[in-house]
Fold this sequence. Notes:
By secondary structure, the chain is mostly helical. The chain has a domain at 28-105: Cytochrome Bc1 Complex, Chain D, domain 2, CATH 1.10.760.10. It has helices at 3-19, 30-39, 42-46, 66-75, 90-102.
Amino acid sequence: MKTHTLLKTLALSTLLAVTGISAQTTTGSAEKGKQAFVKNGCWQCHGFVGQGGLAGAKLAPDPKPIEYIQAFVRHTNGPMPPYSEKILSNQDLVDIHAYLKSIPKGPDYKSIPLLN
C-alpha cells in the first residue's frame, strides 16, 4: 500500500472513530437511493448516473466504500457543502450507495465498431 493511500485510510478511520459515523448494517435500496440522489440534488453536479461532470466527481460505477462516502458527505470542506444527518440520513446515504453500485459499467470502447 502506498504511503499516501495508507495515510488517507488512517485519516478516514480516525475520522469515523471520532465522529461515531458507521455504515448501516442494513442493505440499501437502489430504488430509494435513486430517489434520494435526485431529491437531494446530487445529480446536479454528479450527473443522473453518477458519471461526474464539471462540478462533481465521478461516483459510479464502482463507488468508494460507504464509510468513505459517509465521512466525506458529512465533513467535506471543498466545493461540495457538507450534508448533516438532518438533511441526508445515514440510511439515505446507504441507499444512494446501493444505487451507485447498481449502475452497470459501460461497454469497453474496443467493443464499439465505430471507435475502432
